[in-house]
Specification:
Helix content is 56%, strand content 6%. By secondary structure, it is of the alpha/beta class. A hairpin with a 2-residue loop joins strand 6 and strand 7. Helix 11 (190-202) packs parallel to helix 13, helix 11 packs across helix 20 and helix 13 (223-237) packs antiparallel against helix 14 (243-265).
Length: 532
Amino acid sequence: MSARRKTTRKRRPKATAARGSAAGPVAARRPAAAQAPAVTPEALARRFFVYVVIAMVAAAAILSILSIQRYRGFYGGRFDMGNMVQAVYNTAHGHFLQITTTDGRQASRLGAHVDPILAVFAVPWLVWPSPEMLLVAQAVIVALAAWPAYRLGLRILGDARAAFFMALALLLYPPLQYAVLNEFHPVTLAIPLLLFAFLFIEERRWWWAAPFLVLAALCKEEIPLVIAVMGAYFALRQRSWRPLILTALAAAYFVVAVKVVLPHFSPGGSPFLTRYADLGSSVGGIGANVLLKPGVTLRHVFGWSNVRYLLQLLWPFGFSSLLSPLTTLIGAPEYALNALASNSFQRSYEFHYVAGEVPFLFAGAVLGVARARDWLARRGTRRSPARAARVSVGTLATAVLAAAVLANFVLGPLPFSLPGAHYSGRDYAVSGHAKVLDMAIRMIPTAGNVLVSAENDAGSHLSARRAVYDFPDIGNAQWVIVDQTNPYVYDHPDAVGHSEALGALVLNQNYQSVYARDGVYVFKRVGAAASR
């Protein structure tokens, strides 16, 4: 009887299975409604947009801190930071974009560059009257470029994660970061403005693009040329003649800027035309000779310095921009200006001259990634459907991001403080000599009506005033500051000329030395002002 009971008794399930582990019977019997819902593409896009916002805030904060550190270490000077500061200061005090020229005259900033967007900063200057305001504003505005970058990636690539990686690659792109850290230049603001405009035109939202196009054109006189090429590009891309209206308007504004505005405020011509002296002495002459002297033009364009410059622009995006060459070539006017200039700084990725190129190198990279994905998918499908499934736009975007990270380590300005890094924390430390200069500057009254003569290094710290002379021009200056360790005559190093000018100042009975330390001298006027 007992044996029979043993054979017919049902075995109980184990307690853990009865209570229902994740793989147990209870989980198996769970209704479909209780399963975790799949994340929709819209929700995923919103989630990654939050990550983009976090990245923008981080980039703006880091670049602001580094810019201020550079400024406090006297990176930059009267040329160009001081000119921007004085133009904004004078605009805020009722003198529209006025600066002091090297010969001591008050003139309009528009005689050097047509960048009236500077006037916009007169309002925040009244709230935060400091050159550091310009540096922080520039960092914040340029960091906003990640917003249209993400939206463009989302539209073209159709993958939120890939779009986020591409936006991060833009924020880590060394030329963009250097443009922000290279003092303050209005043209740098064109980077996010042109990207917003590109995005909205791609979406066929012309009224949304219009204000960004206008603001970008106000950043510098050559930006309208880039906009004109962008109009022609979208005429081809959208198979429509309407974008050519943009081309015509932008070209007309360029002609007005260089043929009317610049000559009006600078009758002698733009001082920067000398950089193209071997091609002509006027804008029209230079343009004609570019076509009529192909040998000279090609020698410039294909010189090693230009080839190296292009490689340094392209490889931080993993050369993906080359896969969409027409998009990348929207920046051709800026490439040409830099390639043909005698100024070697224009062929360096560490200066603001890249501003008209960066937006389209990035847009070309996004379209290039999409093209690479499509090509790999077609090739994989022909060979094996399984291999085609492995082709992921996220993988390609990750490769672009990895290239940007590596480029930032090897070429970029972020202070990694690791072996092999291009920059370290020491590069942003304020030197002892900079502290001496700062002490000397603190002796000079900050009132805007106090006349000062300063050479290049100290100039950006003393330009927030109605007039400021450029040493060795001392004019009627009440204070003169000279740094013998970095001898500049106006905007170029000249040890002999600097020594002669300093010697003449020492012998000038109208000035008395009130500070001398580590090669830094401050003189105060004690005699009558000279007539000018």
